[in-house]
Amino acid sequence: MRTLTGVGSTPLTGVGVVRWHRPADELTLPPRPAPADVNVEHERSRFETAQDEVREALETARTRTAASVGEDEAAVFEAHQQFLDDPGLVDDIQDAIDDGTPAPHAVSARFEAAINQFEAMDGRMAERADDLRDVRDRLLAALLGVEAVDLASLPADTVLLAERLTPSDTAALDPDAVAGIVTATGGRTAHAAIIARALSIPAVVGVGDELDAIEAGTEVLVDGEAGEVVVDPSTERRAAAGGVTAPVRDAPVETADGKPIEVAANVGSVTELDPAAARGADGIGLFRTEFLYFDRERPPDEDELYAAFTEAMAVFPDNRVVVRTLDVGGDKPISYLDLPTEPNPFLGRRGVRLSVDEHADLFETQLRALLRAAASAQGDGLAVMLPMVARLEEVTAVLDRIDAVADALETAGVEFAIPSLGAMVETPAAVFLADRLAERLDFLSIGTNDLTQYVMAADRENDGVATLHDPLHPAVLRAIDHTVTAAHAGDAWVGMCGEMAGDPALTSLLVGLGLDELSMSAVTVPAVKARVMETDTEEAAALAAEALTCSTREDVRALLELE
Amino acid sequence: MERTVEVVPAAGLHARPASSLVQTVNTFDATVEIGRGTDGADELVSANSMLAVTGLNVTQGESVRLVAEGPDAAAALDAVAAILTSTVEDEGEAS
Q1: Which domains does chain A have, with CATH numbers?
Q2: Do B55 and A73 touch (CB under 8 A)?
Q3: Beta carbons of A324 and A286 less than 8 angstroms apart
Q4: Nearest-CA distance from A332 to chain B in Å?
Q5: What is the ipTM of this complex?
Q6: Considering the domain B2-87 in this protein, what is its CATH number?
Q7: pLDDT in tens, A53-89
Q8: Backbone Cα Rg of chain A
Q9: How far apart are CA B68 and CA B72, in angstroms?
């Protein structure tokens, strides 16, 4: 039993068999031996075996794509099969092997030459070069014993290991098949980690280079709470992992001394609603609407949006559902939106900035659907939240827009109601203006991932500044404190929907800072509810007050008794 | 035995037409070689290689020279010529 340590990302535990996901550019050839040391017979049969393997994989991919997508899309795999058996390539590769070149080196060199040849021609040939690359990578992966992992159809009980996973890699995973994810890099607030939590896949990130030593086929335990990866776990360790950490509580909870704290869930699609309810969430504190806009040719219409909003309210008839209006920008491209390519998309045209300006049309459709949904059966609980607010002008523009939409619905004789309205506090500007925002709005919700990024000037996806990207830096805690105080002075309730809200180790600090609502990945709801019930508000307030006097992150962590 | 034909499919000798050409050639015993109509005999490449065929980079409207040898050479030439002069294509471009 050997244990590697990283950062626990999804606080669940899973046991399974390791499969490595290595993108093609990480395939490196072993050192090349002298021709005299090469066993030609062995290399020839090695090449043929690899060809057979790849041929079979391509056939599987072709059949599956034909069934799930269509024959036209499957045709690309036929082209790949032809390159695989192309005499123009195969004959040369076999000749090179006969001259004492190991199979991987022969494949790499011949394909490289063909790719260069194609790329020297016009645009259409460059596409062929991509096909050649795909075939080469499959062959090299087979030759080097690196499994070419098809992320969408991993076998059951897979623990997926990777240097890093992209958000789309993660989104493709089947939560029923994947028992865990471990990555060498990344932090718990990276988008990929957030998706893993949404999918309730146990995950440990940021393990470091030591991860390379774990071979495919090894059995490992992924403990996303402790942030540990245990190789060949003992029976005791497995048994300990089997227990559920906190029971699910369906009813809202109070602190030990009777202060109610709402513990809600963040969801990124309607399919996450039922799992959130099953874990006892008190409604939805962040309903992302972006998923309704991705992977399609045109934006959803009003009726489709209305259906999604009323579906969410039907799952949580007695709770609040906070819908965040479209939060896209240059880093989350949508084909039909024609968003500009920006050098700094996190500091560019995004969120409410687009909604009150160039994408006012999409925003108006969202507002119409929201105002109609607010008048539906469970509509009382509907709330609307604006992302990336930095100016009062944005709030004013939105309020005007709501009035205009209400007038239009009234004129058309359509039933509507005005939902409560709030803003996310993600920018330092919103922190400093929190008092003014609270005067005009019903609530504020602190998005700690972006707030930390902007307060600390530290890109949340950049491992080089991962230490800076921690909400426990005193500057971020003070920003939260300032926001809560200002919100309450303006009679607005204040919640938190960043990743910080879902960390049970921070629950008493957050209660002490005065937050009314905590919204998180559904998977952490039971643990946070348990912590709320153990918390005494006076002790928590004293803890928060002391945390606010700390000078450094280390002091805060020591105070909270975090390692 | 040889023949010269004009390439009709919009994709030229790429994508779906190239792919069906190679597949068809492989069903015959005859060896088939292909080259630009304007090129000499030494410019011919093997028509059973997708790499070689697409590498010619022949576009719509160009003429190509087909040379076949073997017992079913005539049938092979007919089949290949049929593909190169067919207008029914070429959803392959979409992929």
Answers
A1: 2-22+149-242 (3.50.30.10), 29-143 (1.10.274.10), 255-535 (3.20.20.60)
A2: no
A3: yes
A4: 25
A5: 0.76
A6: 3.30.1340.10
A7: 889 888 887 786 676 556 766 777 787 888 899 988 9
A8: 27
A9: 9
